[in-house]
Every structure is written in C-alpha cells, then in structure tokens.
Design brief:
Its EC number is 1.14.19.-. It comes from Nocardia rhamnosiphila. GO terms for molecular function: oxidoreductase activity. Keywords: Membrane, Oxidoreductase, Transmembrane, Transmembrane helix. The strands form two sheets. Strands 1-2-3 form a three-stranded antiparallel β-sheet, with no helix packed on it. The protein is built from 23 helices and five strands. Strand 1 and strand 2 form a beta hairpin. The longest helix is centred in the N-terminal third of the chain and has 34 residues. With 495 residues, it is mostly helical.
C-alpha cells in the first residue's frame, strides 16, 4: 500500500496521525503491557487465551501485535469477533508502545529498520460488498458447506495412507533393498516428504487444539522448516500480510544469498544438515526457555495447552535424527543422504515458488488496493506438478490451490480449496481480477528459481561489484561460508 493509503486508513481507524514515534529503550525489548491492537484500538486478551476456539497459541503469540488482518482473514464472521472483543477493550486508542517493534520475533527475520507499528499494512474488512465477504457468503450455502466438509475428510484419509507409505518405503529399503532400489527410494521419499509436509501446511492453519498440535509438526518432514516456529511466521505473519515488510517468508529464504554462488549448494546443504541433527532441537530448547521466562499462562493458558505442541515438535525432531542413525547402522547412509539433498532443495524451491519474492514489493501488482482479498489473489500463484489438482495438492506441499488458500486461509485442507475454487474465481471476476492458469513447478518456477537463488552473485559480491574470482576466493567469502555452516548446527537461521 502507498503512504497516502496508510494515512487515509490511519484516520479511518482512529490512529494518531502525528509523525511516527518509538519510545527510547533497548532495541527489541518487548512492551510490558498485555495489549493486542485491533483497528487502531487497544485490547487486553489475556483472559481469552485459554478460551480461544482456535487454540491458545494464536492468541498468546500475537500479544503486542496488530491483529486486524488476522481477525479479518482467519474468521468466517469477523463482525461477531469484533463484538466479542469489546468485552476486553481498554477503552483507548493504540499507541506505538503497545506494539513490539519486531512482532516478538527474531530481528534477523525482518529488513533493517523495520518497525511493526509503522510497517504493518492496514486493510478495511468492514465493507460487506468486498471480495472476501461475497466469497464467504456463498460458502455458507448448505450444499457448498457439506461438500467442503467431505473434502476435508477425504484429505485426512489420504494423509493417513501417506503416513503408512512413508514408513513402508523406508522399511523396505532397510530390510529388502532389492525391492526398493535407490532411484525408486529417493523418488518415493521426495514425494512422500513433500506430501506429508503438505498435510502439515494445512494443519498449521487449523485450530491449534488437541492432537492437531502434534500433527502440525509433519510440516518438518521435508527438512526445510521448524513448524513450531513456522506456525507463527507462516500463519500469522505471511498470510495476513503477504508481500509486505511483515512477511518474513520472503526474507528468510534469501539468507543463502550471502554465500558465493559456486559454494551455495554444498554450504547451504551442510547448514540444513546441521539444522536437522542439532540446530532445530537447540532452537526448540530456546523456545522452551522463552516459554518458561514469559510464562506458560501468557502463551498457552495452561500447561495442558502447551504440552502437545512441545511433545509433537520434539517427537518429529527425534524421528528425523533416528532415521539417519538407523540408515547409518544399516550401512545405507548414502541412500539417506541422497534423499535428504534432493528433498531439501526441491522443497526449498517449492516454498518460494508460489510468490514473486524476487520482485520488489513496490513493483508488484495490486500493492495499492485496499481490498485484502484482491491483494491476496494478485500476489499468489497456483502451482501444478503432474496436472491433476488433487495429486498436485500434495506434491506441491499444499500449494496447488494456492490462490484460494490465500483468500481463505482458515480452510482445513487443499481439497476444500479445490472445492471452493469456482466460487472464488467467479467472484474475483466480478472484482476485475484475472484468474491466471497455474504455473508449472518443474518447467516454469523451478528453472527460474535456480537462476535467482543459485546462479546470481553473492550479496557481498553484488554490493562491492566483485568478479567471480574474488567472489569465491576472498577470505571474507570463506569466513562467511564457515560461519554459515556452523550456524546451522547451533540453530541460527532456522525457520
């Protein structure tokens, strides 16, 4: 959105229109008050954390943030939520001191100079005739709602079958290698890890309650992310604020660009291997310490609310390391290593394939619209892998029906998004938004992303205008590579 757009919306939501200010103090220190900001007003939702139907995590994690876009996009009836919020009103306008400058997240996730109060986009979700309201109204039709419920159940059945296949493929490779030759094993593991990560992708968007807190961690099976952290960065920062400076997704996956291009694949692979064996566990232990410091009640309401999240996340980390140990013990390390490398790089590119993260935000279409749903459609691609939408929904880690997913992030499955696509497409046409055909991951996005992320000069070489020799032979470049690899084993850079 443009500066003038922010000013107009600031007046509409009752925000102070004076020059941006931030009280002095140590950078990154969270405010001491229990404040959530909605439409420019201050609320204290502490007592709502353990009662939130969507789970404690989402309320506890958004303390000292602007939750306007989260409420507007993740709830079928945000007007009802707004009425409920009045019970927790502090009866005043929000001020910069209410907002943590970095959203209570690590500084490295944001560009230099980022400040949440100033840089969080603001949209008006009150227009009953906007794209999002029209779509939601049609989805309430009984026949449509029933079909979406059936699609959710079918999606979960497929996920169960994929879990069975996941362990069966590894078991065959370890016990009867002749029945699972290396090429077939690698292909099967890449497909299964991506598919189960696709299930985890949608589990992150579901209510974080009960066993779903455990299932969410299947997002970790493709080695790329740490779902315990991604549930915040993906669901609460990326989706509501796509392609803005709040969208950490576009920042995280450029970290490898500091590595000289010829070293990038091996160095980043070692970095992520470090994440797998020790780094992500160290990051989880940091989260445990942070939770104890902040208080379990502040983040989860109760210990019972916290335990499944931690058990599931530590359990998946143990599973990934145990698989490595078992393959080493069986004398089949290179089979594990090959599937690890191929899965890692294909999954990494899948994560960034559905947005133009390489394009400057100001050059993107739709950046000046006040209609949140139109903005989401303008900024997202649908992906295709083999051409069947239901299969592609899993092969693409949940990104095949991606445009619908961004307009309706609260839907529980990719199959539900496919069922809703005709409605979203028809209503988008009414808003003048073209429905673009899906992009092929294999023939379109993957080659383009290789050029961007693998073959372009390192950041330092770009800034200093170094040629390829100096880019790769400068002592500073070697130091960068060494530090980056070590950081992987210590959990730095983990998402």
């Amino acid at each position: 959105m443009t500066t003038s757009d922010h000013a107009d919306l600031g007046d509409r939501f009752g925000e102070p229109d004076e020059e941006f200010r931030r009280p002095p103090g140590p950078p990154g220190r969270p405010p001491i008050s229990n404040v959530w900001v909605y439409n420019g007003r201050a609320y204290d939702l502490s007592d709502w954390i353990s009662r939130h139907p969507g789970g404690e995590f989402f309320i506890g994690r958004t303390k000292n943030r602007d939750i306007t876009s989260i409420i507007g996009s993740y709830h079928r009836e945000p007007e009802r939520i707004e009425r409920m919020l009045q019970r927790y009103s502090l009866d005043r306008r929000a001020v910069p001191e209410d907002i943590h400058p970095k959203n209570n997240a690590p500084d490295f996730l944001f560009i230099e100079g980022f400040d949440s109060w100033r840089d969080t986009p603001k949209y008006d979700f009150s227009d009953p005739g906007d794209l999002l309201h029209r779509i939601k109204a049609r989805l309430k039709e009984p026949a449509v709602a029933a079909r979406i419920a059936r699609m959710d159940r079918l999606f979960d059945i497929v996920a169960v079958l994929l879990v069975i296949a996941y362990f069966a493929v590894q078991g065959l490779r370890l016990t009867v290698p002749a029945w699972m030759p290396l090429p077939l094993f690698v292909l099967a593991m890449v497909v299964l890890r991506s598919s189960l990560a696709g299930f985890g992708h949608y589990a992150i968007h579901r209510a974080q309650k009960g066993m779903n807190k455990v299932f969410t961690n299947s997002f970790d099976l493709n080695y790329v992310a740490l779902s315990f952290v991604t549930a915040d960065g993906h669901a609460l920062l990326h989706h509501p604020h796509t392609q803005s400076e709040v969208d950490i997704k576009k920042n995280v996956f450029t970290m490898m660009m500091q590595i000289p291009r010829l070293y990038r694949i091996p160095v980043h692979t070692v970095h992520k291997f470090g994440h797998t064996v020790t780094g992500m566990t160290i990051r989880l232990l940091d989260v445990v310490r942070l939770t104890r410091k902040v208080g379990v009640k502040e983040m989860y309401g109760t210990m019972g609310g916290a335990l499944p999240h931690f058990l599931g996340s530590f359990g998946v980390r143990f599973l990934l390391v145990a698989e490595l140990v078992v393959f080493i013990a069986a004398g089949d390390f290179w089979a594990w290593a090959l599937q690890f490398v191929v899965t890692l790089w294909i999954s990494t590119f899948l994560v960034v394939a559905s947005h133009d993260f390489d394009v400057h935000t100001d050059d993107l279409p739709g950046s000046d619209t006040e209609d949140w749903a139109v903005h989401q459609l303008e900024q997202a691609y649908d992906l295709t892998v083999v051409g069947n939408r239901y299969i592609d929904c899993f092969l693409s880690a949940g990104l095949a029906p991606h445009r619908v997913h961004h307009v309706l992030p609260y839907q529980r499955s990719g199959f539900a998004n496919i069922a809703a696509e005709d409605i979203v497409r028809e209503e988008a046409a009414e808003s003048g938004v073209a429905w673009l055909p899906p992009k092929s991951f294999l023939t379109d996005r993957f080659p383009a992303l290789c050029r961007i992320y693998l073959f372009s000069r390192s950041r330092e070489a770009e800034e200093r205008d170094w040629g390829p020799i100096r880019e790769h032979l400068a002592p500073a470049a070697w130091k960068t590579c060494a530090v980056y690899m070590v950081q992987g084993f210590t959990g730095i850079g983990t998402v």
